[in-house]
Amino acid sequence: GRKGGHKGRARQYTSPEEIDAQLQAEKQKAREEEEQEEGGEGATGDPKKEKKSLDSDESDEDDEDYQQKRKGVEGLIDIENPNRVVQATKKVTQLDLDGPKELSRREREEIEKQKAKERYMKMHLAGKTEQAKADLARLAIIRKQREEAARKKEEERKAKDEAAMAGKRLQSLSLNK
């Protein structure tokens, strides 16, 4: 027979309550270890410390921010690097949503491109650009050509009318004789 692959195995899901209980147990163990290292008294310490263990997660976050564990040799040597930027996590209450927002390079370029296009269109409509001047000159030439064509048509029409009138006069004179 064939051996089944890893995809047919039964999956086990952990409930959120179990996860919370595990996290609380780990935090409790870490606190007890810290207390043993500091004072060596264990669980029979201050009632304030026991109260802290029962408090909400806010006190846990404050303790973590206050006392960060250093890795490797960092604890032994104090280095002040002026170029090192420590990224501080901000809380939601500290965020400034109303302040001016930084635009990305692409957004800035897109806005500049739109503004340049608008300026060009204004100049073009005012007739100040090279293309607008060329268009106006071409339009003037076309107008002159059309006026000349219309004038020639009018002259031809008048000449036809006069020729027709002259022909009618000749006919009427010849009929009268």
List keywords for this structure.
177 residues; mainly alpha; Casein_kinase_sb_PP28
Describe this structure in words.
Helix content is 62%, strand content 0%. It is mostly helical and 177 residues long. The protein has a domain of 73 residues. The longest helix has 47 residues. It is elongated and about 150 Å long.
What is the gist of this entry?
62% of the residues lie in helices and 0% in strands.
Rg over CA atoms, rounded to whole Å, is 47 Å
Mean pLDDT: 79
- Strand pairing plus helix content: what structural class? mainly alpha
The total beta strand count reads 0
How many helices in DSSP terms? 5
**Separation of the first and last Cα atoms:** 131 Å
State the share of residues found in helices, binned by percent. Answer: 55-70%
Pattern of helices and strands: HHHHH
Q: What does the overall shape look like?
A: elongated
Major sheet details:
none
Low-pLDDT windows of residues: 49-60
Oligomer description: single chain
The proportion of strand residues reads under 5%
Biased composition (Basic and acidic residues): 46-55, 98-113, 147-163
Biased composition (Basic residues): 1-10
InterPro entries: Casein_kinase_sb_PP28 (IPR019380), HAP28 (IPR039876)
Biased composition (Acidic residues): 56-65
